[in-house]
Amino acid sequence: MDKPTRRGRERAATDQDIRRTARKLLVERGPEAVTLRAIARELGITAPALYRYYGSRDDLVEHLRLDVVADLAAELTEEISGLPDDGAVQLFAICRGFRRWALTHTKEFTLVFASPTGEVGSAAGSVATLNRANEPFGRIFLTAAGHLLANFQLEIPPTEAVPVELHDDLTAFQDDLLAVLRESGVDFPPEKLDLGTTYVMIQFWARLYGHVTLEVFGNYPIPMSKPDAVFDALLADLAREIGLDAS
Fold first, then answer.
1. Residue closest to 243 by CA, chosen among 146, 150, 153
2. CA-CA distance, 7 to 27, in Å (whole number)?
3. Is residue 29's pLDDT more than 90?
4. How many other CB atoms are there within 10 angstroms of residue 21's CB atom?
5. d(Cα 176, Cα 173) in Å, to the nearest integer?
6. pLDDT for position 247
């Protein structure tokens, strides 16, 4: 393998410095503090010099977001690596790990899961959806769900119980889900991923994400003296609805 040139080594090191500085600003001051000017000031260089590596602030923030997502996925992967090869056990461990990470990494959570990237209310522009299923966190979450669906007889609503208005969106999303499951090595029968199953997966994520978001931003309707118990109750409810035990 050819050794990298001196210029290449400097470029890689500089890029690493930029992203490390962007992460530091994110953690200490929040997403709005991550600007090219602020990063340049921290590094002692001029802002235009950063355009060698990133075409815009949005470009830099997207790379930063991917770094955060990859770190989250790696952390959760390590957490479940010692657990039984059981989809239910792993899925609910991921849910608990996601909540714990969100509560201890609030600035990163805000950037990745609570920063709209499109018009208000547009599904395609919200990073809070699972429309980024092929990214590390989406893959780990959906892979565990795939193991669960493939190996358990769940209580799934029939297609006619799914709102007609959602059919087209859910059908389009099925292809993404199947691709992720195949890439992750899950032996998943495509016929099991019907509209009812897809609907349950989206509802599961929406309720999990909604609960965690309320906690992170302190917007739960009433003060909760035992928030862990409230979250465990949510998981128990979600599990019960599909015929599982979340304990």
1. 153
2. 30
3. yes
4. 17
5. 5
6. 66
